[in-house]
């Protein structure tokens, strides 16, 4: 069958019937240009690159579980999405542990380096690139901790797919090319960074074409050493000493003591109920509570009766997002008491009154800003948006893992440690260095991060949904918009991810994908939204990977975002 076309007159239906009957009967089951539904009873991996999804599915097929597959997928993403995440990045995981019948969370965002000279900076743009932007790596520790506590496989087997991809190489596909080309001109201005970066990812030219074979032998060697020696090779061992020496020679602040102190932290999830689904993500310092607060604000709104993607639907959702963002920024790292108040009925009731009062809502969506903030343009936010990856995995035993992890900006700090193939993060760009901010970061302090990997449980306590997305502060917006499409309007998960979305910026700025009707956009401007559309499909509104689990059959169905190179693979 050709995708998007009904079956034609090549087959008879058993028992008779005309060719016309068959064509008409098939109309309701054809793809009509959409992706096929990919489901399995044995395990599903939804990741941001086909080769990474296949790496995780290979581990599942060889007897590993979702935790093993998560580490394999993450390591493979280090190779095939080197601009998005890697072992020297940071991240979070939400995990449903079937043997324990509960959701656990894992925080592998380490504290800010203890020698970080925050007093030298007044705005975050000063930390966009270079050695001083590097936070303490956490991803490797997180991957290994999931395997240590809940996995079945050893690191040599888990890292084998990534090692092979790094050594043998792989052809660059569309998004690989776009990200590498997009980063090269900016990094070329950083002469201390560019040559090593260009040798590692472009054979020294600074430019790539579709089909270019990217081989990373240094990274293959690093992964082999980590597989043999374990995470201690980085966190205090020879690899860690090499990283620190390189950074300190370039003026960085990371120390071997920071690496030795790195510890992934298991925790209890934060959760709210929305449309009968119990949605879990990480508690602070993770900033995912904004996402849950937005859902609380929308819980009493009968969105299903509204026109999908119409004025009333979008106005409500955008207003709720902006109100919740304001609460998150005002209470950026809340105590447990403050958090309970933020998500509690009294505060939610106050915000709901504002949600429905019809007056324009204006305020920040990123970090704390004094006074009335300007409306940021899409171009101004570009570097901050293109930096993160998220993947979801479910296995035949009932385990579910959702991971969101990042290098910060594209290729992180731009620092590639010679001889290791490691590209280091720039997560101190996400520190708040504004000297007037109530949330100003402190050396050795926590680093709140805007990610929200999430798992939804049904009323019987069994998992129904895993979803996460990249997108900087837009993560906390994208997941709400997709969930509304899925839970309120009843769209299948793939269709919900493909539905048009918007990215809200400081002030009143909203950047919707242009598939939203122009008359609807105009009406939303009349309601006070400063609407400036993006192209029809745009990665600034995220790149979600998700899995839905059928309550009756146990079938696991993956969904991936066409805005990036998302792909679903099955065991």
TrEMBL record:
Keywords: Hydrolase, Transferase, Zymogen. One of its GO terms (molecular function) is hydrolase activity. It comes from Vineibacter terrae. This is Gamma-glutamyltranspeptidase. Signal peptide: none annotated. The keyword Hydrolase applies. The keyword Magnesium does not apply. It comes from the Bacteria. Belongs to the gamma-glutamyltransferase family. InterPro entries: GGT_bact, GGT_lsub, GGT_ssub_C, Ntn_hydrolases_N.
């Amino acid at each position: 069958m050709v995708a998007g076309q009904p079956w034609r007159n090549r087959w008879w239906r058993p028992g008779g019937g005309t060719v016309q009957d068959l064509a008409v009967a098939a109309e309701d089951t054809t793809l009509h240009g959409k992706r096929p539904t990919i489901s399995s009873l044995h395990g599903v991996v939804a990741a941001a690159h086909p080769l990474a999804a296949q790496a995780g599915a290979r581990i599942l097929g060889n007897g590993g579980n979702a935790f093993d597959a998560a580490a394999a997928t993450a390591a493979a993403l280090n190779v095939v999405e080197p601009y998005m995440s890697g072992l020297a990045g940071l991240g979070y995981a939400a995990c449903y542990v079937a043997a324990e019948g509960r959701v656990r969370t894992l925080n592998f965002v380490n504290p800010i380096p203890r020698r970080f000279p925050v007093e030298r900076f007044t705005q975050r743009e000063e930390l966009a690139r270079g050695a001083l932007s590097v936070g303490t790596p956490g991803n490797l520790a997180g991957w290994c901790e999931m395997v240590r506590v809940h996995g079945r496989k050893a690191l040599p087997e888990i890292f084998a797919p990534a090692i092979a991809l790094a050594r043998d190489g792989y052809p660059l596909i569309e998004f690989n090319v776009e990200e590498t080309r997009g980063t090269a001109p900016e990094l070329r201005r950083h002469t201390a960074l560019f040559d090593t970066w260009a040798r590692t990812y472009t054979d020294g030219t600074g430019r790539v074409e579709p089909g270019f074979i990217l081989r990373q032998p240094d990274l293959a060697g690093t992964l082999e050493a980590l597989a043999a020696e374990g995470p201690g090779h980085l966190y205090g061992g020879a690899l860690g000493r090499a990283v620190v020496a390189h950074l300190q020679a370039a003026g960085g602040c990371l120390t071997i003591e920071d690496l030795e102190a790195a510890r992934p932290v298991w925790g209890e999830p934060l959760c709210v109920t929305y449309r009968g689904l119990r949605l879990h993500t990480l508690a602070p310092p993770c900033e995912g509570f904004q996402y849950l607060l937005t859902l609380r604000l929308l819980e009493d709104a009968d969105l299903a009766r509204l026109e999908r993607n119409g004025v009333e639907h979008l106005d409500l959702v955008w207003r709720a997002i902006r109100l919740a963002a304001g609460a998150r920024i005002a209470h950026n790292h809340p105590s447990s008491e403050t958090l309970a108040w933020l998500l509690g009925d009294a505060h939610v009731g106050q915000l709901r009154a504002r949600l429905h009062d019809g007056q324009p809502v204006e305020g920040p969506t990123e970090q704390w800003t004094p006074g009335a903030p300007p409306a940021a343009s899409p171009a101004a936010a570009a570097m901050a948006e293109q930096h993160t990856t998220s993947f979801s995995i479910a296995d035949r035993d009932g385990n579910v893992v959702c991971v969101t992890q990042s290098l910060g900006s594209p290729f992180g700090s731009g620092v590639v440690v010679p001889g290791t193939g490691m590209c280091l993060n720039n997560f101190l760009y996400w520190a708040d260095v504004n000297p007037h901010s109530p949330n100003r970061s402190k050396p050795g302090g926590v680093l709140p991060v805007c990610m929200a990997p999430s798992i939804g449980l049904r009323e019987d306590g069994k998992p129904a949904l895993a979803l996460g997305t990249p997108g900087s502060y837009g993560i906390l917006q994208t997941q709400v918009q997709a969930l509304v499409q899925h839970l309120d309007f009843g769209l299948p998960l793939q269709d919900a991810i493909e539905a048009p979305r918007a990215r809200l910026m400081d002030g009143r700025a909203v950047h919707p994908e242009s598939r939203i009707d122009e008359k609807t956009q105009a009406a939303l401007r009349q309601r006070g939204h400063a609407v400036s559309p993006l192209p029809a499909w745009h990665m600034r509104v995220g790149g979600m990977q998700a899995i839905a689990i059928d309550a009756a059959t146990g079938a696991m169905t993956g969904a991936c975002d066409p805005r990036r190179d998302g792909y679903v693979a099955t065991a």
